[in-house]
Design a protein that fits this description.
By secondary structure, the protein is mainly α. The protein is built from nine helices and no strands. InterPro entries: HPP, TM_HPP.
Length: about 200
């Protein structure tokens, strides 16, 4: 598995460098350094673009679990967890489970846990949201680990309003679209939806 992952990573970097006519970089520098630079530029640029959308719209387009998603999309783009299906469905499940947990424990109008501190109802909401998210991702075969963080972001009250959930999903979709373009430019058979290209 590790050898196959390394081959995909080399193909990713090599393909993109060929597209940009910069093949000499892969010959001159250590492949790990080139891959690190690739992730620095693409992960940073993708998150910066989404943060710009948040700035312009003054909406919550940027949230912590997008960072982990960006890492997967540019580091292991052909892994099942990085497929558009898993990324989008995983974050939707996480957001909905977090929101349902807030309602179940009467926290839908409560300030975020970082403001009020953690109480027993918040402990229950956080535990339930993560447990449900994990179970549903397994049942629906859409495992995406960063979605667990999305469940906690919602259940801890950072994004607790229902109208924020479409914005959250739009941000994830924007990140997936960027990954699709960049990975395809690099010659990686990044899938259109499921785990297979």
């Amino acid at each position: 598995m590790s050898e196959q992952t390394d081959q995909v990573r080399q193909q990713l970097v090599g393909g993109l460098l060929r597209q940009l006519h910069l093949e000499v970089l892969s010959q001159r520098f250590n492949p790990r350094l080139v891959l690190a630079a690739f992730n620095l530029v693409n992960g940073g640029l993708s998150i910066a673009l989404i943060a710009m959308v948040a700035l312009v719209t003054q909406q919550a387009f940027i949230f912590p679990s997008l960072g982990a998603t960006a890492f997967l999309l540019f580091h292991v783009p052909t892994a099942d967890a990085a497929s558009p299906r898993n990324v989008l469905c995983g974050h939707i499940i996480g957001a909905l489970c977090g929101w349902a947990s807030l309602w179940l424990f009467g926290l839908h109008d409560a300030p975020a846990a970082f403001i009020t501190g953690v109480e027993w109802s918040r402990v229950a909401a956080a535990g339930l949201s993560l447990g449900l998210t994990s179970a549903l991702m397994i049942l629906f075969r859409v495992a995406h680990p960063p979605a667990g963080a999305t469940a906690l972001i919602v259940s801890l009250g950072l994004m607790h309003e229902l109208q924020q959930l479409p914005i959250l999903v739009s941000a994830v979709a924007l990140l997936v679209a960027q990954a699709f373009v960049i990975n395809r430019l690099a010659g990686i058979p990044y899938p259109v939806w499921g785990g297979k290209p």
